[in-house]
Amino acid sequence: MYQEANQWMYGHAEAPVVGSIKRGGNVFVETYSVYGYKNSTVPTALEYFTSGSAQGQCVIQNNPSVASSYCR
Fold this sequence. Notes:
By secondary structure, this protein is an alpha+beta fold.
């Protein structure tokens, strides 16, 4: 992943999970790699879903500007 995308994912998707677990919560995490090209070995995006004491859905675009990434 691009460094910018990796940092964005930590700040917006992973940090809430870590914080919840440190406060005694429990979280189930699912991640899916999205490949924009049939034979690509590098994902164009990651879908990140959490449930439990930290609930959310994120799509992290793997590009230098992290454009179009979001969490709900």
